[in-house]
Amino acid sequence: MRKETKGYSLVILGATLLGTIGIFGRLIYLHEPDPLTVVTFRALIAFFLLFFATILFNPDSLRIRRIDYLYFAVYGLLSVTFCFLLFFYAIKFTTIATATILLYTYPAFIVILSTFLLKEELTKTKFLALLLTFLGCILVIQVYDPAQLKLNLRGIIYGLGAGLGAGFYSIFGKKAVERYNPWTVVTYALGFGGFFLLLIRGASPLYTANYPLMTWVWISALAIFSTLLGYSIYTRGLKYIEAGRAGIVATWEVVVASFLAFIIFGEKLTPLQIFGALFIFLGIFIIRAHPKEKEV
């Protein structure tokens, strides 16, 4: 399999798993747990599972240069702690739809940042694909419905901050996989990110959390499928394709989330949502059909 084909396949698979976040979130919040406690559990459970699995199967991969501990600390703080936390606050001050579309500015952040920090070329094809997928996200999330929107400065700042944090995940990850195994990268990113979330949340709410059994099942599923596997597979895809292209293709998770909501919760898909999904398909097709000039 060609490197680029492998990279796109991994990113799409990772995005598919990331697309389950909303489904597990809805199942979890049926029992009204504290969202900040949930995202802290999400990061810590994923980290410890990945950490112990790595110790068991490939302990040497956890060895990194001393200077890179600082790199991964900043990586985890910006792309895990801030992203999880700011998205939570964006929802608090706006709505889920508003916060989600602000979060999905992250492909634009990735394309812009990768142009300056990773020296990736900003081509007309990449810009067109970015425009199509962002328009598709807007339609799928139904931002055109005034009832779904609630705009205020604080919520917009938090939402854009979450998008920037998600963008940093790909930027930092792309540089990290040049030196380390993708599993190593995700382990340290989640480890530091979970640690900073724990400092913010405090240990007491975690010890006293008293949720029904099914809530723990859904939190565990969120940590394993949406976080551990989703981030790990996506990060492995970064090894083979540009960060900007990966970010554009990752908008596939919006389609997955809407389709799962239709299958599991019986939510109707409007014609505009279907058109939005087609725009995302088209954007991914364009970016995939026009490979970059240089091999990664």
Which tags fit this structure?
single chain; 296 residues; mainly alpha; 14 helices; globular
Report on the architecture of this protein.
The protein is mostly helical and 296 residues long. It has one domain (3-289). Helix content is 77%, strand content 0%. The radius of gyration is 18 Å and the shape is globular. The model has no long low-confidence stretch (mean pLDDT 90).
What topology emerges from the helices and strands here?
Elements: H1 3-18, H2 21-28, H3 35-57, H4 66-93, H5 96-103, H6 106-117, H7 124-140, H8 153-176, H9 182-201, H10 204-208, H11 213-238, H12 243-249, H13 252-265, H14 271-289
Helix pairs in contact: 1-11, 1-13, 2-11, 3-4, 3-9, 3-11, 4-5, 4-8, 4-9, 5-8, 6-8, 6-12, 7-12, 7-14, 8-12, 9-11
Shape: globular
Percent range for β-strand residues: under 5%
The percent range for helix content is over 70%
User: What are the secondary-structure elements, in order, as H or E?
Assistant: HHHHHHHHHHHHHH
Structural class per helix/strand content? mainly alpha
- Number-wise, the strands total 0
Summed up, the domain count is 1
**Termini separation (Å)?**
14 Å
Output the radius of gyration: 18 Å
Task: Characterize the main sheet.
Answer: none
What are the low-pLDDT stretches, counting only 5+ consecutive residues below 50?
none
Short description:
Helix content is 77%, strand content 0%. The chain is mainly α and 296 residues long. The chain starts with a helix and ends in a 7-residue tail after the last helix.
